[in-house]
Amino acid sequence: MTFELTLLTRADLPFQPGETAHDTIDITSHPGTDAIADGQTEPFDWMDLRCMHPAFEQLIAADEVVLDAGQATLVLDYPFERPVARELHAANGRAFSRGELMKRIDETYRRTYRLETESQSAPTPDVGERGQLLNRPPSDGVVGILGHDYGDLGVSSIKVYQIDGVVWLMLDMVS
């Protein structure tokens, strides 16, 4: 899928992260096989992005329509030095399901991490090469990733801001 990412500064946003949102879309998921093996049986109040492929079925209520808007602007700012935005258009032209939003979030994170890899001056060391440090070192590409690999990220909720007729989406993340 081809789409454009826009680099932002926090000053470009018409709201401040943490500001009271118009609405919140909660994200919950069933535990995966590893979690079940560790004794986890209750749903998680977040979804690991690494579970999006191939285990998308872990997302609870994926088909539920959660955003009654034909388009929205997704903003990713964690764990990035410079936020990125992507225009989303609902597949049906009218509304987004929870699953459609999560798929678009996953696609956008994957693309952003790839963009950073292609633009940084040195490759990010593999986990095995980091010694005691599990987090990735800060990178110096166009986005500037601070501390977390893609596989470390999870979404706990999506904040919905409606400003001057534009719907903005900002994520609450766990890592």
Structure description:
It contains 2 helices and 9 strands. The protein has helices at residues 33-37, 98-119, and strands spanning 6-7, 23-26, 47-48, 65-67, 71-76, 84-89, 96-97, 154-163, 166-174. Helix content is 15%, strand content 25%. It is globular and about 45 Å long. The strands form 2 sheets. Strands 1, 2, 3, 5, 6, 8 and 9 form a 7-stranded mixed β-sheet that branches. The chain has 175 residues and is an alpha+beta fold.
Give a quick precis of the structure.
It is built from 2 helices and 9 strands.
Task: Report the uncertain regions.
Answer: none
Describe the main β-sheet briefly.
7 strands, mixed
User: What's the total helix number?
Assistant: 2
Mean pLDDT over the residues: 89
Q: Using the CA coordinates, give the radius of gyration.
A: 16 Å
- Share of helix, binned: 10-25%
Apparent shape: globular
User: Which structural class do you get from the secondary structure elements?
Assistant: alpha+beta
Number of strands: 9
Strand content: 25-35%
CA-CA gap between termini:
26 Å
Order of helices and strands: EEHEEEEEHEE
Mind sketching the topology for me?
Blueprint: E1 6-7, E2 23-26, H1 33-37, E3 47-48, E4 65-67, E5 71-76, E6 84-89, E7 96-97, H2 98-119, E8 154-163, E9 166-174
Parallel strand pairs: 5-9
Antiparallel strand pairs: 1-6, 2-8, 3-8, 4-7, 5-6, 8-9
